[in-house]
Amino acid sequence: MTATPDPVAAAVAAAVEHYRGDPNYILQMLREIQEACDWITPEAIDGLQRALLLPRTKIEGVAGFYAHLYTRPHGRYRVLFSDNITDRMLGNLELLEYMCKQLWVERGKTSEEGLVSIDTASCTGMCDQGPALLVNNYAITHVTRQRVDEMCELIRNKVALADWPGEYFRVEDNVRRKDILLGSDCAPGAALRAALPRGPEALLQEIKASKLRGRGGAGFATGLKWEACRNAEGRAHYVVCNADEGEPGTFKDRVLLASYADLVFEGMTLCAFVIGAGRGMLYLRGEYRHLLDRLNAVLERRRRDHLLGANILGRPGFDFDIEIHLGAGAYICGEESALIESLEGKRGTPRNRPPFPVTHGYLDQPTVVNNVETFAASCLVAQGGGARYAGIGTAESTGTKILSVSGDCARPGLYEYAYGVSVGEVLAACGASEVQAVQVSGPSGVCLAAAEFGRRIAFEDVPTAGALMVFDHSRDMFEVARNFVHFFAHESCGFCTPCRVGTSLLRNLMDKLRNGHGSPYDFAEIERLNGILQSMSHCGLGHTACNPVLDTIAKFRPAYERRLQQKEFVPAFDLDWALEPARQMTGRDDAGAHFDTAPGEER
Amino acid sequence: MNTVIGKKLKVATTSLAGCFGCHMSLLDIDERLFDLIELIEFDRSPLTDIKELGSCDIGIIEGGLCNAENVHVLREFRRQCKILIAIGACAINGGLPAQRNQLSLALILQEVYHTSVGLANGLIPNDPELPLPLAKVRALHEVVNIDYFIPGCPPSADTIWKALNDILGGREPELGHGLIQYD
Amino acid sequence: MSGRFTIDGKIVAFTEGQTIIQAALAAGVYIPHLCYHPEFKPHGSCKLCTVKVDGRHTASCTMLAQADMVVESNTPALNDERRTLTQMLFVEGNHFCPSCEKSGDCKLQATAYELGMMSAHYDHFFPKRPVDASHPDVLLDFNRCILCSLCVRASRDVDRKNAFALCGRGIHTHLIVNAKSGRLADTDVTLQDKAVHVCPVGVFLRKDKGFNVPIGRRVFDLKPISAYVDASAAIEKE
């Protein structure tokens, strides 16, 4: 008689072995266990606890933080519809409801036999080919009612995901305009070959001369960051690539990693050369799970080609390697200190700063955290020289910027332009007409109205991580802002009071307006909350959570005024509906069982 | 009391989902009632037994909103009173009655009328004369705009006296240590 | 490095490594706070201690004091923002003071008194947070938890038990205990643990004694919280 193999125990053992029992990799282990077991069972946590000698609180605390890790039973097929405003505009919620109906499952619940669960997720980075969804973290694009029908059939027949039609999972690059980066012919190793003979100091000077600035949106000078890290003392130095592209509407890193991964890894290697790092980590958002195997293959090839590993390109003592960490549904991990916490296998809570990562980053050691695009661009600098790079773009914003364009336009996708390009030029290129507004840099960015389309993409004018979401005149800008406010409430990490509670209060107020219960009183409350979020929050998420509301109030005020249907305060909830449970229990439906006054008649 | 001498202010009071403790505390201001009555006259109030609410300067409401009738009375007070004051824990945050908000109304009604013995022959009362309970007990400010709050369970006589003084004097009530209490 | 800075115009001395709040409290200048505790590493989550340093908002419990800083703290605008934070905490949980054994010994309540909070202002969330009465000596009432992490830190850093942690995210963040059952009885927590005594509100209640000190004679009944140099020590002595 053979013992029944315990799949959970096996999955735990495999994950622990994969990561050599290193507790810093707890998030990666949890992710792999879930891939094998559909959800993280209490027994899986038992196993991890025993193997890693960690307190249960630590494991549960981490598992509970990430939206795409489940510590309650979930279906064998876990479907998450991307819920960015661009998906909304393409009818994602109708498709979600349709799928729920077809599979007899309630949104957010798991079907009885544990087959399927269906819910929404924050933007999955497929805005150029939405509506999109994730099945077990694998992206499916261009979802239509027909595709939903087909998926339901596959799910009912319990067809393994690996056997689903490959075309479902096809993710297009949609590169619409190339410039020096997307058009680069830099062969793998070319930038390193150019930089290594001249030494790290010379490379640092080129980076500084290029005036390259961080492409994640904040625009910190890359040369200064590398120099500060190089000069910081520590047991070890680390290079971290921020590929947690969570800002709704942004998808350029997806394409860079899909088709330009060598540039990204090479840029990280250049950085390692400058700062003296031996280890690099790429933090890939969980929504880009489909890229993982491909990226690992690129890393393997680069190792074979001596572009990674010991004595890179034969240079004695230049040892560097890169590993990929996957996120699990947490926008906040795009914040660099939260990202580092997550890399260390913790809850993705932003740290208190200072100190900054350049001196106290991964494992409290000097760490450079840069955006995917920044690393890729650094290859162009290493190859062509800083001066040449600095000659492109504007004086304060050198080089090019890759823009992720989505929403109401004929040709969504990637557009690379030298800095200084006007928003209007980009709109013309992507075939947008009747444009009412453009949300630049996602919900945390800025909303531009038509009068501002002459403004330029540059750190000194409109800085951006790269997203342009286009809204034509048919769109309701209040609903756009409301979608973004829901996003922030969902993604708040919960660490600080103002953001944890304030984003929920703001969401409730926006919903109150939507439901026709808004009055000038509520409008004043919204403005007040905006102020508290901006001044009291712990990190950028809270500081910017009110931006979409502030901007749309300033520029599209009628969209709000339409909603202030009440002159005086009325409740946020439907008073008559508050009697419904009692009506059901008593069977009453007489006049006294209802509130007769329509909202607005009372003070 | 330092307020503009003139016409007496009309004040109405009521207790919704409360225990009348706040009203008792109001009476506890004792001999200061004589000072107060120089300045105000009571309209509808348990103290006067006037049932119909007329136009008033100030409405003072104890208790939260537990059923439809509470809401009707509160709205009537909001319509008739220039200034509305929520007094006591129940009016301000639902208080003791709001402890039921942890359970669904259906569960509560089932427990009381179906499971427990001896009440209403196992039937949930459905007489149209009875006000229906709300799904959740609510604080007053969640349903109408409230101008002032006097916290406490109940607020002490001194607290009420100080707050009313401030309000009648046209000032934002400032209670200070010892007078501001939530328990 | 040591030196002086001003807070609301008052000159305060500090020694190297002191945060603004540490230097201020030592000088008898009260700055409202909830997650700060003198015996623990600064956390910076409640944000009640936010001050303005040279015109910019910052948490005074995590910001190191520096010479010649100009700090604003006791201003109507900052106290207004702090009051809003206490109101957020009140609506987020279920804070029903009249029935709470910690009433009068509670830093949240006392801070709200200090800031003149007359109501919670916002709609109450009324979250469902069942109590845990499983432990023979300690009752856990999660309704009052303000997620300050003090019990988490005390259990990890002092008791070395890791008995508590925050789980979930955003508005769903909640306290968990170190047991598969989720019950305190199944942990190694004892009445002697620091974690049981650091709670600034009323999550942890001793079962063996209650209402030892009558309402009206409790820590913050005697003096307002601003009059205590170390309010945490005062309530933990109770």
Lay out the secondary structure:
The complex is a heterotrimer of chains A (603), B (183) and C (238).
Chain A (H helix, E strand, L loop, with lengths): L6 H12 L7 H12 L4 H11 L3 H8 L13 E6 L2 H5 L2 H12 L12 E6 L11 E3 L2 E3 L4 H12 L18 E3 L12 H6 L4 H11 L11 H10 L6 E6 L8 H8 L1 H15 L3 E6 L7 H13 L16 E6 L9 H8 L23 E5 H13 L1 H5 L9 E8 L5 E6 L4 H7 L5 E6 L5 E4 L17 E6 L4 H15 L5 H18 L5 H17 L3 H5 L2 H9 L1 H5 L18 H7 L17
Parallel strand pairs in A: 1-2, 5-11, 6-7, 6-9, 7-8, 10-14
Antiparallel strand pairs in A: 1-3, 3-4, 10-11, 12-13, 12-14
Helix pairs in contact in A: 1-2, 1-3, 6-7, 9-10, 9-12, 11-12, 12-15, 18-19, 18-22, 19-20
Chain B lengths: L8 E7 L5 H7 L4 H8 E3 L13 E7 L2 E3 H13 E7 L1 H5 L11 H11 L17 E6 L9 E3 L6 H12 L15
Parallel strand pairs in B: 1-2, 1-3, 3-5, 5-7
Antiparallel strand pairs in B: 4-6
Chain C lengths: L2 E5 L2 E5 L5 H7 L23 E4 L2 E4 L10 E3 L3 H17 L14 H8 L23 E3 L9 H8 L6 E4 L6 E4 L26 E3 L12 H4 L8 H7 L1
Structure explained in plain terms:
The complex is a heterotrimer of chains A (603), B (183) and C (238). Chain A is an alpha/beta fold and 603 residues long. Chain A contains 24 helices and 14 strands. Chain A has six domains: 57 residues, no CATH class; 96 residues, Glutaredoxin; 215 residues, Rossmann fold, CATH 3.40.50; 74 residues, Ubiquitin-like (UB roll), CATH 3.10.20.600; 84 residues, Up-down Bundle (de novo design (two linked rop proteins)), CATH 1.20.1440.230; 29 residues, no CATH class. In chain A, β3 and β4 form a beta hairpin. Chain A is globular. Chain B has 183 residues and is α/β, with parallel strands linked by helices. Chain B has a single domain, classed as NADH:ubiquinone oxidoreductase-like, 20kDa subunit (Rossmann fold), CATH 3.40.50.700. Chain B has a five-stranded parallel β-sheet with strand order 2-1-3-5-7, with helices on both faces. A two-stranded antiparallel ribbon of chain B has the order 4-6. Chain B is elongated, with a radius of gyration of 18 Å. Chain B starts with 8 loop residues before the first strand and ends in a 15-residue tail after the last helix. Chain C is α+β, with helices and mostly antiparallel strands. Chain C is globular. The interface between A and C is large, with 41 and 40 residues.
